[in-house]
């Protein structure tokens, strides 16, 4: 199976390939020529990631990218790239052109003295270079004199300084930190019992929107994103595609959105928002991960998280806890012999050691100790799964040993220096005792992840991004360990919501929580979206049967409101359809029957068509997109119930297209229909509702429908502040819209 793994790894390319660099740079030049500067920036970034650091080629990539950034108006980032090009040995003869760009940037930023200094350097350089008869030199000189006159122009009439923008006094939130749970509010307390395990309970009354927890991920790994399906295709040796994935869009360390990425010095995969992130990531984990890139991509994100976890913790801490767990296992065996009941033995354990994961002072910190104590449920995984996990972990450790990374893995972190650097026989197939400890911990983490992995999601913008209304959908960005967030038990109707910013999670109450009540997080799909039977099926990966109030109510009442809302209707007479595998029309006179499979195929097809319509919109073919969506709507009506979520989605997309065309009234009409459906499915104060209201506010704002806009802004604000807090960008944007509307001069109001 080693050969098979190697073959698989060959499809995931993380090495630097000069031919790929050439391909991406040419593609970038092509986009640049067509004035698609955003795409050009991304392609030059791809090219840079395939060039060797310090080579003239990589400096050319940065210089080209700086030109595209200049056109995008990102002057600060443009300056950074120019500096980067220079530090990587940009060819001297080409320098004047780049320096002129630098001067122009400085001019745009209002830094006149710096701009003048840069121009002086260029002038010197050009005269030093001597004869200047070539046409390029002539254009350079022309540009130079243009810039000089611009500077003197600006100097003579300085622009009024823009008022400091950040003076909006942001309401500070009430926040009192918990003394014994790191990052948590003092309104929570940590409880433990054998039935519910560890859990958090409100120790005072909590208001909706109140901040309950702010936690930085102990470790997080960026998910490669949708493009990773490509890894499964057999691609011929020399093709690269220009598709953009999460791996190109977000910093591999801090998850910040990338504009001009800094490539890793060793691989073409890792990209960072800044040199600092690149350096810190290298020190903490990437020096070990870099040569393993393809293997980690092939084995999947759980293995990658497990490896990064032990690298972040360091060998000393890992071995301390692994040894401790061995002692504990002995205790457990004794206890089990006595009670024959693992839950009771757990009790015995807490008797001596307090709540698992807490330190000696009884504090629960966001530490490796807490991560180590998350439940691996080792006895509940099926043997095949455990075996596969073990093979993966061993493959990683063997590769580390082969690549001579062992010293880096162990020395870099171990607190006591000089942990015997004795040379081991290279031919030995056996893992060293230290790597065996690392492997044991990694296996534990892989198993833990099945129940404890937290997805970091963000709302990603869809479509061209050039429309006035931004449509967003939640996207899984990374997989992470959040030891404190992991304390929350599950309910299908949770009383909190979680949002992410970079690698930090914020938990807010989504409803009033009286003192004494447990805090619940929803691990799976919300009860509005999925029927109880399917929900329980999905939750089985967490090794429990959900007995939350929502599930109990639904199981008991049998009135399945979700399935009624998301049901099919008869393609012939539009009456409702009933049945499981084969559905029959409820209208006796009709009696048509169709297989569920067929209906599911139709809704799958419908979703594909809708996706195509959005692609048309992205290619600025709005008219065709509308035609396609109207066809989708006709099709949907013929077999879906009027309240089906997909019916709402079609309306939502139609609204988006009309908004792109500036037809605000039509857009608002469609969006209002989508909102009705969303409200029925998710409830009037759900986060989904908040996002729909936000879009409607934007549309009404753009269409100058002042009073409707104001009342929609009000509603959106009420809902969204519960989920994202008063300081979130969405709330700020709503405030700006409101201020703008209230300040509108009367004459504009009368015109509409
Ligand atoms: Zn970063
Ligand atoms: Zn790397
Ligand atoms: Zn439930
Ligand atoms: Zn019928």
Helix content: 40-55%
Briefly note the CATH topology name of the domain at 7-152: Serine Threonine Protein Phosphatase 5, Tetratricopeptide repeat
Q: Low-confidence spans: pLDDT under 50, at least 5 residues?
A: 162-171, 227-237, 335-352, 413-427, 463-468
Structural class, by secondary structure, is mainly alpha
The set of bound ligands, ions and cofactors reads: zinc ion
Count the helices. How many? 29
Percent of sequence in beta strands: 5-15%
Rounded to an integer in angstroms, the radius of gyration calculated over CA atoms is 30 Å
By CATH, the superfamily of the domain at 7-152 comes out as Tetratricopeptide repeat domain
Specify the biggest β-sheet.
Answer: 3 strands, antiparallel
Strand order, largest beta sheet? 3-11-10
Return the CATH class of the domain at 7-152: Mainly Alpha
Q: What value does the average pLDDT take?
A: 82
Q: Give me the CATH architecture of the domain at 7-152, please.
A: Alpha Horseshoe
Q: How many beta-strand segments?
A: 15
N/C terminus separation: 71 Å
The 3D shape can be described as: globular
Protein name: Protein-lysine N-methyltransferase SMYD4
Main location: cytoplasm
Catalytic activity: L-lysyl-[protein] + S-adenosyl-L-methionine = N(6)-methyl-L-lysyl-[protein] + S-adenosyl-L-homocysteine + H(+)
Keywords: Cytoplasm, Metal-binding, Methyltransferase, Nucleus, S-adenosyl-L-methionine, Transferase, Zinc, Zinc-finger
């Amino acid at each position: 199976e080693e050969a098979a793994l190697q073959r698989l790894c060959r499809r995931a390319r993380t090495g630097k390939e000069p031919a790929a660099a050439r391909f991406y740079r040419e593609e970038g030049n092509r986009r640049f020529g067509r004035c698609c500067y955003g795409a050009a920036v991304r392609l030059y970034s791809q090219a840079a990631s395939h060039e060797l650091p310090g080579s003239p080629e990589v400096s050319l990539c940065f210089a080209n990218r700086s030109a595209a950034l200049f056109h995008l108006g990102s002057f600060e980032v443009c300056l950074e790239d120019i500096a980067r090009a220079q530090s990587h040995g940009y060819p001297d003869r080409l320098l004047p052109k780049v320096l002129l760009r630098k001067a122009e940037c400085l001019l745009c930023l209002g830094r006149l003295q710096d701009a003048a200094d840069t121009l002086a350097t260029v002038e010197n350089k050009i005269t030093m270079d001597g004869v200047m008869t070539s046409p390029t030199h002539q254009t350079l000189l022309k540009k130079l004199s243009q810039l000089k006159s611009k500077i003197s122009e600006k100097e003579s009439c300085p622009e009024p300084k823009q008022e400091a923008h950040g003076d909006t006094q942001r309401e500070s939130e009430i926040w009192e930190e918990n003394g014994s749970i790191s990052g948590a509010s003092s309104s929570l307390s940590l409880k433990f019992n054998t039935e519910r395990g560890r859990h958090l309970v409100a120790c005072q009354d909590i208001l909706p929107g109140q901040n309950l927890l702010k936690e930085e991920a102990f470790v997080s790994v960026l998910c490669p994103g949708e493009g990773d399906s490509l890894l499964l295709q057999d691609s011929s040796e020399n093709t690269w595609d220009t598709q953009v994935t999460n791996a190109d869009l977000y910093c591999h360390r801090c998850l910040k959105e990338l504009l001009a990425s800094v490539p890793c010095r060793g691989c073409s995969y890792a990209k960072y928002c800044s040199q600092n992130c690149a350096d810190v990531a290298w020190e903490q984990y990437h020096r070990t991960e870099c040569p393993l890139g393809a293997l980690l991509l092939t084995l999947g994100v759980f293995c990658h998280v497990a490896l990064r976890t032990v690298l972040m913790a360091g060998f000393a801490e890992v071995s301390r806890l692994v040894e401790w767990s061995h002692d504990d296992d002995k205790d457990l065996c004794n206890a089990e012999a006595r009670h024959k009941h693992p839950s009771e033995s757990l009790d015995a354990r807490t008797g001596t050691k307090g709540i698992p994961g807490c330190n000696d002072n009884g504090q629960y910190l966001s530490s490796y100790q807490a991560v180590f104590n998350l439940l691996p449920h080792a006895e509940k995984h099926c043997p095949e799964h455990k075996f596969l996990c073990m093979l993966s972990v061993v493959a990683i450790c063997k590769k580390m040993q082969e690549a001579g990374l062992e010293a880096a893995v162990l020395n870099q972190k171990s607190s006591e220096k000089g942990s015997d650097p004795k040379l081991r026989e290279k031919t030995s197939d056996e893992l060293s005792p230290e790597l065996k400890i690392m492997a044991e911990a990694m296996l534990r983490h892989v198993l833990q992840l099945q129940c404890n992995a937290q997805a970091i999601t963000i709302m990603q913008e869809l479509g061209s991004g050039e429309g006035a209304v931004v449509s967003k959908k939640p996207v899984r960005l990374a997989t992470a360990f959040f030891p404190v967030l992991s304390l929350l038990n599950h309910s299908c109707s949770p009383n909190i919501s979680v949002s992410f910013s970079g690698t930090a999670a914020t938990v807010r109450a989504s409803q009033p929580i009286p003192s004494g009540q447990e805090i619940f997080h929803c691990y799976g799909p919300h009860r509005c979206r999925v029927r109880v039977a399917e929900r329980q099926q999905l939750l089985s990966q967490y090794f429990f049967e959900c007995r939350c109030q929502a599930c109990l109510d639904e199981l008991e009442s049998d009135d399945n409101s979700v399935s009624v809302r998301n049901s099919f209707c008869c393609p012939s007479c539009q009456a409702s359809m009933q049945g499981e595998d084969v559905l029959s029309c409820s209208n006796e006179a009709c009696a048509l029957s169709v297989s569920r499979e067929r209906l599911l195929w139709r809704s799958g097809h419908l979703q594909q068509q809708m996706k195509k319509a959005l692609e048309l919109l992205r290619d600025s073919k709005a008219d065709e997109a509308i035609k396609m969506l109207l066809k989708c709507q006709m099709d949907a009506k013929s077999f879906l119930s009027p309240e089906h979520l997909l019916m709402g989605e079609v309306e939502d997309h139609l609204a988006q297209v009309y908004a792109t065309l500036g037809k605000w009234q039509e857009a608002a009409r469609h969006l209002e229909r989508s909102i009705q459906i969303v409200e029925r499915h998710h409830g009037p104060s759900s986060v989904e509702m908040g996002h729909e209201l936000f879009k409607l506010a934007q549309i009404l704002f753009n269409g100058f429908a002042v009073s409707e806009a104001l009342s929609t802004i009000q509603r959106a604000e009420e809902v969204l502040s519960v989920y994202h807090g008063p300081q979130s960008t969405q709330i700020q944007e709503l405030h700006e819209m409101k201020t703008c509307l209230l300040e509108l001069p009367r004459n504009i109001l009368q015109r509409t």
